[in-house]
Transmembrane protein
Amino acid sequence: MSYNHPKGYILTNAVSHTRFIPFLYTFKYTTIAVFVEISALEDSKLDTPLLFGYNKRWRSLYSLSSDGYLLPSSGIGKMGFRDKVGALLQQGGYGDALDGTNEIWMLSMPSYLGFEGINPLTVYLIYSIATPSSVFRSEDERVNRELRLVLFEVHNTFGEGHVYFMRPGIEEDSSLKRIYDHQWTFPRAFHVSPFNDRKGWYTVSIKLPQFPDADRGIEGNPKPVISIQLREPNIEADQFHTPGQTKLIATLRATNALPLPSARNLLFTLVSYPLELFMSMPRILYQAAILHYRRGDDKSDLKVYIRPEPFLPPPLSSKNSVNSEIQIYPASGAGFTTRRRQPGVLGSLAKEYVRAFLRTQVDKSAELAVVLVGPDIDTEEWFLPGSNSTSMNAKGSETHNTVGPGTRILRITPLAPEFFELLLTAPSAGMIILAGGIVDPPDLSYSRILNSNRGPNDVLFVVNDPELFLDVFNGIRSPRSPFGTPSVAQRLRLSAMPSSLVTLSQASFGSQINSTCEQETESRTLTRLLRIPATHFLDSLYPGPLSTGSSSTRARYLYLSTIQEIFSNIGFLSLLMTILTLSALEPRIFALFRARIKNETETWSAKIWERVERRVHSTRDKVGEVVP
């Protein structure tokens, strides 16, 4: 029967990249991929002993495993490709694409000898299958396929993933080249290339694979063609929400497709291209080095953008961004992120300190609840009085119903793993907000301060109530007088900051407001943000140095308490010192490799505090100086 065509192929692809801005540069290479129908894959109908299999990473030469694709398995359990695609379509509002009989074809690079590359692009083609309804259907009657939805899953070198949705016949481009069947243009929302930020548009063109069909006289091998144009915002026409000139084009063209399962075809491909599946990362690094270190003038200099974080999903309550100056939500049609960077060893340790603190803090107040919101996956971690932290779904309905009517809820959405390191290394809650916070719903007195001199990597978390954030993370354990001697850990934090910020912090503790009525709220907000207590909220519970008595008594007590702090908190202090040291070494490492970093994207603490310093001085110029 015509509908019994092969349900899988191993493809040889010709890939080309051409950059037009700021200069012309082209390179080409060959890749190996598999093009499989995922139901057949998961039913092991494409397995070839020792050569290809589903979830047989270490037991087959080639393998496909669902763990590395789409939603993280840790968040939704051990789901296969079809279940993950179904969950994503429901989450994105495209659940009807799987109505009726369907096939989901997947184009991706498999693992090779257990090695999994970064898989820059995986394509999913979802077809509805229509068969003759007559009970007298003959074997010669053919099956009709209709393309319902296209998914592009994009990965970057940081382990992040993003999915774009394209629906045939909806929002397609009117101008289409003859060789392609479909074309869409949609906003970009994900950091892939180190030489591009998140701004711009994609224009995606697809030539669909032609499946074998004896009734139509179509034989052999489906050879899809995919072209992706990265286009800049239309700056010349002053229309930033429309695509402008093409910056680069990447094209994947299948040159050969051999049916699966077939030991012969797999071995033939292996012999022809024995190392291609190992080459993705070396090629990326090699071409990046050529582009970055080429000699050119300032206008054609390709600087590196360091880790612009993916956008947040649009909030249910509002489709608008917190501020027009700081975009943290994508434009309509930009898909959503499925995987974000996870904390490393240091970030995980810092996170555990924060979680332990929050458990202690909520137990002190019957009217406080704190929730850490996963920015993309459907989870929330609640910290409630008298209970352990609990993971709930994104709506949090079960937990929210257990919270009393007078309870204040602090919602924190970490956008980057560096957020937990910032909580450990910044000297106060106010400085944490100044360095990486965004307020949503908007609070004008905070937003005007936070959004000035903001770099793309300065948005590390979103908080719903900045005043409550300051109360929770500063109003703890009856901290020592701000005029007392800082703890050892606090002195380490202050040493990494510009001296002017420390001076302004000391002045803010007895300050008067010198501003007009319109400026008073913003001035008071800045004053509170600047205050740095002598004891950090994560520091030990030991009694602090005396701030009264004779100088000799204070000096002796300071020496003894410093020794006590070091020995009783050696693990905590080691973690703090390690994070601060690595942050100080980061610019030196980039300098060693002569890397040129795009201004305002630096992620090390010295540059972050420089931008905070400018943010503070810019606000003081507007509202009047804080006067002791």
Remarks:
- DSSP finds 17 helices and 20 strands in the chain.
